Amino acid sequence: MSTCALPVESDWFRITRVDDAITRMEEPFADPWISANMRHIRGRDCDVVIDTGLGVASLKGCLDAVFPDREPARPQ
Length: 76
Description:
Elements: E1 14-17, E2 22-26, E3 37-41, E4 48-50, H1 59-66
Antiparallel strand pairs: 1-2, 2-3, 3-4
């Protein structure tokens, strides 16, 4: 079985700042019936990302670009 990579829009996510602590990430190029919204919630000691995305593009790459000052949490 062979696999091939499909082209993906370079700016797959749309980033919207809701307020100082909440950022919404959307997938505007996905069909509206399956499109998902993700949230980044900034905390005092750590952040939370609620990822309900399709997995088409790297959410981590997007978060690293948007929040370069925030280190991802590592499981202990």
